[in-house]
Specification:
Blueprint (H helix, E strand, L loop, with lengths): L5 E3 L6 E4 L2 E4 L2 E5 H4 E3 L13 E5 L4 E2 L2 E2 L6 E2 L7 E4 L5 E4 L8 E3 L7 E4 L2 E6 L5 H7 L3 H11 L9 H6 L1 E5 L2 H40 L12 E5 H4 E5 L5 H6 L1 E7 L8 E5 L4 E9 L8 E10 L3 E6 L6 H12 L13 H5 L2 E5 L2 H40 L3 E3 L2
Parallel strand pairs: 6-13, 18-21
Antiparallel strand pairs: 1-24, 2-3, 4-15, 5-14, 6-9, 7-8, 10-13, 11-12, 11-14, 16-23, 17-22, 18-19, 20-21, 20-22
Helix pairs in contact: 2-5, 5-10
Organism: Carboxydocella sporoproducens DSM 16521
Protein name: Type I restriction enzyme, S subunit
Keywords: Coiled coil, DNA-binding, Restriction system
Length: 404
């Protein structure tokens, strides 16, 4: 992607040492204030109190993505930090915890758009420089400078003056800067298209699950009836054990340890022994994820904030039962204080199932295929991100030159 625009540099001839690293001899080092205007426009106290605008706070920007507020707010009702005006082609730079890279390039027409003073608004002096400046914010050159500014600070933030003084490598040729920005933008577009496809696939799966698991759609060729069962009548109910971080660190192995978290499929580490072997259903008993259900297969371990279910009936597919159970658990979570779904409550949950094992298995196979397709797409996105990250570092330091 973009290969026809790139020249690979084979040796170090034509390079020089600078304050921000080794750069091509025909590049310069510029402060952001040299190539852009920081915080060009802000609202003042003379604004009509009823003036309405879209307010972008720090939560609206995350690592290159920007989320538009649903509704406008009036100036008189807005927080005091709602002051910075931004336009298309500007860059928002979060000065609070900048290591989280709350940066975004504005690629849409802006009317009545105001952001928090927690952002610096970077407006490039040359329109075609905007993307080049933007991608530099994600590079190691800027990252190193920001980290130095934060050392010894009691609050993880920098100010607008700091942003103005951040230094970036700057090719002298306008066309070179523009091409670097366009190449990296092409990668972002490819990633965005893949991510949209993933969301579409997830929505398709969600809709299919809704129709098949509720019986709104019935696949032909299968006999059977709907049956209501209580968990305690069809499952052996258990609980995991206390597994400390120390135990995981001192007994590392191949068998997963599942806890209350939902990221990484609930896995918090791996040890060299296992407590469970076979098909099980686990759920989170305590905390914000209480009631979340997982299907497990193989050798594994669970901590004490996980409940376990082992099906007693051989005519119920464990994958299918976990899907049907997930649709019910949220109704039973006790949310006073720390959310909980304990074993005694899980025992009395009623689950509606279609009592044909082959039908259950067939439906789950359909969902497994959908999951595999989504997983493959997610792996492709991650590969694109890693490739872009590597290319970005090469392009922004001149180790790889674009053809001009």
């Amino acid at each position: 992607m973009g290969a026809k625009y790139i020249n690979k540099v084979e040796d170090s001839t034509g390079y020089k040492k600078t304050k921000i690293g080794v750069l091509p001899s025909d590049w310069e080092v510029k402060k952001l204030s040299d190539v852009s205007c920081i915080n060009r426009e802000s609202l003042n106290g003379n604004i009509d109190a009823d003036y309405e605008f879209y307010y972008y706070d720090l939560s609206c920007v995350d690592n290159g993505k920007i989320y538009k507020p649903n509704n406008k707010i009036k100036f008189k009702e807005a927080p005091s930090r709602a002051r910075r005006v931004f336009q298309k082609n500007d860059i928002l730079f979060s000065m609070v915890r900048p290591y989280l890279k709350g940066f975004a390039y504005i690629d849409f027409e802006c009317k009545d758009c105001i952001c928090s003073t927690g952002f610096s608004v970077i407006s490039s002096n040359k329109a075609n420089d905007a993307k080049f400046i933007y991608y530099n914010l994600f590079g190691t050159v800027i990252e190193n400078q920001v980290n130095k500014l934060l050392v010894g600070s009691n609050y993880p933030a920098i100010n607008s003056s700091d942003v103005e003084n951040l230094k970036i490598p700057y090719p002298k040729l306008d066309m070179e800067r523009e091409k670097i920005g366009n190449i990296l933008s092409t990668w972002d577009k490819a990633i965005e298209l893949k991510e949209k496809l993933i969301e579409q696939k997830k929505e398709q799966k969600k809709g299919l699950m809704q129709r098949l698991l509720t019986g709104k759609v019935r696949l032909p060729g299968f006999e059977g009836e709907w049956e209501e069962v209580q968990v305690k009548d069809v499952c052996e109910i258990g609980r995991g054990r206390v597994i400390s971080k120390k135990e995981i660190e001192q007994n590392q192995g191949i068998y997963p340890v599942y806890s209350s978290q939902t990221s990484n499929n609930g896995e918090i580490g791996r040890i060299n022994t296992y407590d469970y072997d076979g098909e099980y259903i686990t759920w989170t008993t305590d905390g914000v994820n209480a009631g979340t259900v997982f299907y497990r297969k193989g050798k594994f371990n669970c901590t004490n904030v996980c409940g376990t279910l082992k099906l007693l009936r051989h005519d119920i597919d464990a994958r299918y039962f976990s899907l049907m159970l997930q649709g019910e658990t949220d109704k039973y979570v006790v949310r006073h204080g720390n959310p909980k779904l304990m074993n005694n409550v899980m025992a009395i949950i009623t689950v509606r199932i279609f009592n044909n094992y082959e039908y259950q298995k067939f439906i789950c196979d359909i969902f497994d295929m959908a999951d595999r397709e989504i997983t493959l797409l997610e792996q492709e996105v991650e590969a694109l991100k890693q490739q872009k990250k590597g290319l970005m570092q090469l392009l922004l330091t001149g180790k790889v030159r674009v053809k001009c």
